[in-house]
Design goal:
With 258 residues, the protein is an alpha+beta fold. The chain contains eleven helices and five strands. Strands 1-5-4-2-3 form a five-stranded mixed β-sheet.
């Protein structure tokens, strides 16, 4: 688990569950879904990333990558969404979201890792190219501020491409191919199963539903060819946690009109 020691020492005194998150962030959605599924009390620290509220020395002092989400649990800072939801499930084992069966658990972790693996090179690239990049463009002062705070080379390069030079047609095609390949595989698997990794709703479903939601809603990506994915998404969207963790935080004006 990527626990970090923050330079912003204020958070070391936080007790309970504190989540730094954004309504439009699919990674934040994962954490909120798990918190709601488990009925946990948590304190919200919402950051509007489209308004660049996360690009401050104070927040980079909590998460050195300047990304959301960040969980602070009794003063311990965890910064990656897959590790955060894994930690919450271990720390609060009631209503477990990891299967007991070892084969199913291994499959759950495979899809959890896969969601992380394709996040920047495929999902984020696709969404930024289609919609978000224009909103996240920086003026020279904002650009200088971001570069003074950000030290991660991969994120610096992604930022340069997404807000300045843009992605090439080949890069967007490659991102689209990765997304479609993953969802085609999941669609085939869901022909035989209700859930991605096990006999019940698990962290694998938590990881992939926000990708489906943000790709469809924010980037107009069509999933029409995937009937099993559509049925799976509908089952999750019927859960109370979806309304509380996703829709209640997502800007109404950005919802895709069907």
């Amino acid at each position: 688990m990527p626990v970090v020691v923050p330079s912003n020492e204020e958070v070391l005194g936080y007790q309970g569950l504190h989540l730094f998150h954004s309504g439009v962030s699919n990674c934040s959605m994962r954490v909120r879904i798990v918190l709601e599924e488990k009925g946990l009390e948590w304190e919200s620290h919402h950051l509007n990333i489209l308004a660049k509220e996360h690009i401050t020395p104070e927040y980079f002092g909590i998460n050195p990558n300047g990304l959301v989400p960040t969980l602070v649990h009794d003063g311990v800072v965890i910064i990656e969404s897959d590790d955060i939801i894994d930690h919450i499930d271990d720390a609060f084992p009631d209503s477990p979201l990891k299967p007991l069966d070892l084969q199913q658990r291994e499959r759950m972790y495979f899809w959890l890792r896969k969601a992380v693996e394709i996040h920047v090179k495929a999902v984020k690239t696709y969404i930024y190219d289609r919609r978000v990049g224009k909103n996240m463009a920086h003026n020279p002062k904002e650009e200088a501020k971001y570069r003074s705070l950000q030290t991660n080379p991969e994120l610096l390069e992604f930022h340069r491409r997404s807000t300045s030079t843009g992605f090439t047609e080949d890069e967007v095609k490659a991102a689209t191919a990765i997304i479609d390949d993953c969802f085609a595989t999941l669609d085939a698997d869901l022909a035989e199963n209700q859930w991605i990794a096990s006999d019940s709703f698990s962290l694998a479903d938590v990881a992939w539903l926000p990708l489906h939601f943000t790709l469809e809603t924010m980037a107009d990506h069509s999933f029409d060819r995937y009937a099993n994915i559509a049925n799976w998404a509908e089952r999750i969207q019927d859960r109370p946690s979806f309304q509380k963790a996703v829709l209640d935080w997502f800007p109404a004006e950005m919802l895709r009109k069907k």
